[in-house]
């Protein structure tokens, strides 16, 4: 198997919204969103069984099946195995506006990892998964199982040629650092911990990745919505909750500096998120074709050096953070 990361593009599409995150979208709009990402040059796509209890995988797979398999990279995640849910109901308790046809069972065992990947392949309708990520171990009853059982299982599948690359996807900095220093992972998906608003991953995680050649998939770069607004207000979400007043004030201050330099806050957020040399892709979620095109245009637009200098001078950006050239 060739290196799957060679197909990873600077902008990646995350498929949480395709699983009806927060609100339902129809099949036509979901498919159009993926096709627009393709048209805009995106060749890295991320999904997970968790997203709409398999809905995102099915929707993503149907569109990607129309394109040459060797031309894109696909990642999905393990740790939550889906089992039939005869009780039915809604999946809104997990944030997805979709019927609860299945329920999630935490399982980082070798058998659980293999079953999860086999089930994902069935839902995707594709011949292989390029990148497999251990998903949110910190939320499970036994977080250590991801390192104790899940990682060796993924490493064995990589050795057998079943997977091209393995890693972990989480917002837990302790786990990210542990995997970056104590394992032989290929990638880390850093969720919401290296953004224009928060650079804590710069303390240990990103230096370890740079030193060891681990590539970073930088996700949740808008901090779940706050930085996606040109003028952040009280309706914005931060870390999937209502934005605290001090965080909103900081976001507004950053937005004001951006405006003085003729740059929107979302454009600056995307540019900054991809500037660290360890970052291979900035992964955004989208539920409308226009959102993808807008992000692609923003990430391709240069930002003035004076913007970053002023953010540093105002104490709004760490001086040791790499910025766009």
Give a verbal description of the structure.
The protein has 325 residues and is an alpha/beta fold. Helices cover 36% and strands 17% of the residues. The protein has ten helices and twelve strands. It has helices at 27-39, 55-64, 110-124, 145-159, 173-182, 205-212, 245-260, 265-273, 289-299, 305-313, and strands spanning 11-14, 44-46, 73-78, 80-84, 102-106, 131-135, 165-170, 187-191, 215-219, 237-238, 241-242, 279-285. The longest helix is centred in the last third of the chain and has 16 residues, at 245-260. The mean pLDDT is 97.
Write a concise keyword list for the protein shown above.
alpha/beta; eight-stranded parallel barrel; 10 helices
Blueprint (SSEs and pairs):
Elements: E1 11-14, H1 27-39, E2 44-46, H2 55-64, E3 73-78, E4 80-84, E5 102-106, H3 110-124, E6 131-135, H4 145-159, E7 165-170, H5 173-182, E8 187-191, H6 205-212, E9 215-219, E10 237-238, E11 241-242, H7 245-260, H8 265-273, E12 279-285, H9 289-299, H10 305-313
Parallel strand pairs: 1-2, 1-12, 2-3, 3-6, 6-7, 7-8, 8-9, 9-12
Antiparallel strand pairs: 4-5, 10-11
């Amino acid at each position: 198997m060739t290196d799957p990361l060679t197909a990873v593009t600077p902008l990646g599409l995350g498929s949480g919204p395709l699983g009806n995150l927060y609100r339902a979208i129809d099949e036509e709009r979901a498919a159009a969103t993926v096709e627009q990402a393709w048209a805009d040059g995106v060749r890295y796509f991320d999904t997970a069984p968790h997203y709409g209890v398999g809905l995102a995988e099915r929707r993503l797979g149907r569109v990607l099946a129309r394109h040459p398999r060797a031309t894109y990279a696909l990642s999905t995640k393990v740790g939550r195995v889906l089992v039939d849910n005869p009780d039915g109901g809604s999946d809104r308790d997990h944030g997805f506006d979709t019927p609860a046809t299945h329920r999630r069972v935490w399982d980082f065992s070798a058998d659980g990892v293999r079953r999860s990947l086999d089930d994902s392949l069935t839902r995707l309708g594709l011949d292989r998964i390029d990148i497999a990520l251990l998903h949110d171990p910190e939320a499970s009853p036994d977080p250590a199982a991801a390192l104790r059982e899940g990682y060796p299982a993924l490493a064995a599948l990589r050795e057998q040629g079943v997977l091209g690359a393995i890693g972990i996807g989480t917002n837990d900095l302790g786990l990210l650092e542990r995997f970056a220093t104590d394992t032989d992972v290929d990638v880390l998906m850093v969720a919401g911990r290296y953004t224009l608003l928060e650079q804590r991953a710069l303390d240990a995680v990103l230096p370890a990745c740079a030193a060891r050649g681990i590539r970073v998939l930088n996700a949740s770069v808008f901090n779940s919505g706050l930085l996606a607004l040109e003028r952040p207000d009280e309706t914005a979400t931060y870390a999937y909750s209502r934005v605290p007043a001090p965080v909103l004030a900081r976001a507004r201050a950053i937005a004001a500096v951006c405006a003085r330099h003729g740059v929107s806050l979302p454009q600056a957020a995307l540019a900054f998120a991809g500037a660290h040399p360890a970052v291979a892709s900035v992964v955004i979620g989208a539920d409308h074709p226009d959102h993808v095109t807008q992000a692609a245009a923003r990430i391709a637009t240069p930002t003035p050096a004076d913007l970053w200098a002023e953010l540093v001078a105002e104490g709004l950006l760490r001086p040791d953070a790499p910025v766009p050239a």
